[in-house]
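Table S2 (text version). Query chain:
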Amino acid sequence: MNLTPRDYQAAIRDFILTHRRCNVFAGMGTGKTGATLLALDIMFLFGEAKRVLVIAPKRVAVSTWPDEVRKWSNLRHLTIAAAVGTAAERLAVLRGPAQIVCINYENIEWMIDALGDDWNFDVVIADESTRLKGLRVGMRTSSTGKQFLAGQGTVRARKLAKVAHTKVKRWVNLTGSPAPNGLQDLWGQCWFIDGGQRLGRSFSAFSDRWFRTVPNADGYTKIEPMPFAQPQVEAAIKDVCITIEAADYLDLPPLVESEVYVDLPPAARAAYLKMEKEFFTEFAGHEFEALNSGAKMQKCLQFASGAAYTDDERNWTLLHDEKIDALRSIVEEANGMPVLVAYQFVSDRQRILKAFPRARYLDANPQTLVDWNAGRIPVIVAHPKSGGHGLNMQHGSNILADFSLGFNLEEDEQIVERIGPTRQAQSGLNRSVYRRRIIARDTIEQTAVLPALRRKARLQDALLAAMKLRQSA
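Corresponding structure-token output:
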């Protein structure tokens, strides 16, 4: 069967072909992988691409991209391989004959050092490009007048920056969540598109122009956007961005979200309140201490969830089972429909698997995903970070339960879209998607995490909406 692009996939394909370096902000489930492959196929045909490097989360690099090539008759002539495994195995793929090579972000530094002057990729696709948001480089001039890259930020992004504009002629950033934590996430991604022409040659130039410094609870400082920042940033990057959301093209079933509140038992609540106030608490003979506000926040989230780590080895002690009981009710209410359960802490996963003997963990074994989509797993437990990118889980269920909450909007959005409305509609499954968040009442989950996710979502929705309006203008 051939891949016949939907209207929005054709729009993605054409935008990539007409923009040598661009951002594709395509909502989850919009088929951006297939659309990008269609564009690459045309590039190969007309000599616009000789060899392509796809950088992606590991599971996506190993499965999603190769599977998409194998899936469609009109793409099977493309040769694709994943550079994973031992260093020797990865190097063999990098130096091998495949037209398209997929590698995970964690191996970027190794790859660039290993290839050295033998770099032979003229097109780079950065899938889930928010992984590049940590770039903090700028151009400097030496005493001899020679310009060079310097700065801080994540090692992988800095390494990649050294070849991005010297050895790569086409670059495509793919993501459905371009600014999960605010406008500051855009600079690093856009630098790979234009070297800082639109948002500033360095992150400091970007932040000086559009942000202000304010104190935070730790006594340090953070940056927040100026009132005029969002419209100006949107206007600056509009010509190299396309925003596609399936809801604009498909009749999607609804996403029904609701909260299930639980109350901490008196002893656990007393220990929680002491930690929240004093950075120290005791429970069941164990002492818990937080050295800063960030550590206190994590410890409070663990208390809300029901188990807290007692050491750096992730040993934990049980505080309460209120969330386990709430999850049991959700599973029972599902009346036989499997339930996808998202968690934040290892202790959460271990407790859920113990409480539900037939539950499975979403591990790296491909058969687990096959069993889930075949309806053979009644409860599957997944962390949003490892189970949130590129996985098709919609055939298994339409119910997601969040056992615990985290602040990362991108992961929060990605995990629900594994079974979300877009994937349901594209698979011909005309059924609503239900998301049940289990929240400990009057804890940081209710007072801080949930409001933060909603605030970030509003900002990102506004950004994507503005990009769409500017595209149609």
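Notes on Table S2: DSSP finds 18 helices and 21 strands in the chain. The longest strand covers residues 255-262.
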